[in-house]
Design brief:
single chain, mainly alpha, 4 helices, globular
């Protein structure tokens, strides 16, 4: 799966959690700070990504995800490793 496809999936999942009026989900957007995701919603997004991409994350690694690009790099690596 290409990073563009993973990014599209991420954007769609995030859109279901936040009101994007006036916001654009770009790779440099900070998931919790800019999108105002609380810790529960953040973990829910991560869980949805795990399910959609059929991968398993390590909880300690999730703490390093700040931006959408961080998530894309992390999940892209997991998807590539499973391919």
């Amino acid at each position: 799966m290409k990073n563009e496809e993973i990014l599209k999936i991420m954007q769609e999942i995030i859109e279901s959690y936040v009101d994007l009026e006036g916001l654009e989900i770009t790779p440099n957007i900070k998931l919790q700070e800019d999108l105002k995701l609380n810790s529960y919603d953040f973990m829910s997004v991560i869980g949805d990504l795990e399910e959609e991409l059929d991968v398993e994350v390590e909880e300690r690694e999730v703490m390093n995800i700040v931006t959408l690009q961080d998530a894309l790099d992390y999940f892209g690596g997991l998807v590539s490793a499973d391919a």
